[in-house]
Amino acid sequence: MTLDHIAAPTQLLHTSPYQRSVAAYWNAEKNPVNLRLGDVDGIYHHHYGIGDVDWSVLDAPEDSREHQVTKELHRLECNQTELLLDQFGAIAPEDRLLDAGSGRGGGSIVANQRFGCAVDGVSISQSQVDFANDQAVKRGVDDKVRFHLKNMLSTGFETGSFRGIWNNESTMYVDLGLLFAEHSRLLARGGRYVTITGCYNDTYGLPSRAVSQINAHYICDIHPRSTYFKEMAANRLVPISVVDLTAATIPYWELRAKSSLVTGIEDPFLTAYKDGSFQYLLIAADRV
């Protein structure tokens, strides 16, 4: 029996107490840094930014400075989304994409705007799913963009039904072997997988103190860089592009550290990126 003929597994939502704790965290999360940036244009992302910063926003008049900084942070996170979607190349309107760990839905909505295709988003957080579906309705794209309360490790979607799948800063919540096995099952042959993720640098040794602080803050388990490539190889996902975005994301964090949207995790991120113990990678891989 080939992988292409394996039946879809029974859908599981929470497979462990840990996953229930993650769902509870995101159900309760209302962090201003994840809401005010989305308020700029109604596109709510749940990830960080890349690119050169327009530092002049810090010199804006006091009554508009906070708004200008927020707009700049949002521009940088939108840059990150566009770079991720660039990796899919030509996606046709009849194709279907999966946003694994879709947060409040911004990436899925942008993908639909860009390609005109159907996009499914999955999250184990009911509040995120409800928020994202509401955004799709408000934008009139709910016929093409749908969000589901599903576990990305066991979606129940039909085998081979997606042309592309991405994880945007969500792989640190799951076992990579299980994740890539499910993605490989879901992708059509020749389909593409893309992730942007933080990973700890194997050459540094074990996770640094700063990386451990990030894990504790987000209730996650950041994987070593090597595990991504090991588990991709084991699940018929062949990397075609690997880009180190560490230098490109540091300016975002430096600006965020000077904004009113600080959460206290900015210093650990900057420390880990600058001491080399943590890397911000883009990986694109084809399903063979």
Q: Mind sketching the topology for me?
A:
Blueprint: H1 17-28, H2 32-39, H3 62-86, E1 96-100, H4 106-115, E2 118-123, H5 126-138, E3 145-149, E4 162-168, H6 176-186, E5 187-200, H7 209-218, H8 225-234, E6 237-244, H9 246-256, H10 266-275, E7 278-287
Parallel strand pairs: 1-2, 1-4, 2-3, 4-5
Antiparallel strand pairs: 5-7, 6-7
Write structural notes for this entry.
- Helix content is 42%, strand content 19%.
- It has helices at 17-28, 32-39, 62-86, 106-115, 126-138, 176-186, 209-218, 225-234, 246-256, 266-275; strands at 96-100, 118-123, 145-149, 162-168, 187-200, 237-244, 278-287.
- Helix 7 packs antiparallel against helix 10 (266-275) and helix 9 (246-256) packs antiparallel against helix 10.
- With 288 residues, it is α/β, with parallel strands linked by helices.
- The model is unreliable at 1-7 (pLDDT under 50).
- Helix 4 links the parallel strand 1 and strand 2 (118-123).
Please summarize what this structure is.
This protein has 288 residues and is of the alpha/beta class. It contains ten helices and seven strands.
Biggest beta sheet attributes: 7 strands, mixed
Summed over residues and divided by their number, the pLDDT gives a mean of: 94
Question: Strands of the largest sheet, in order across it?
Answer: 3-2-1-4-5-7-6
Query: Which bin fits the share of residues in helices?
Result: 40-55%
Ends apart, CA distance between termini: 16 Å
- The number of helical runs is 10
- Strand runs, count: 7
**Quaternary status of these chains?**
single chain
The fraction of residues in strands falls at 15-25%
The helix-and-strand class reads alpha/beta
Radius of gyration from CA coordinates: 18 Å
User: What spatial form do the alpha-carbon principal axes imply?
Assistant: globular
Identify low-pLDDT runs. 1-7
One letter per element, helices H and strands E, the order comes to HHHEHEHEEHEHHEHHE
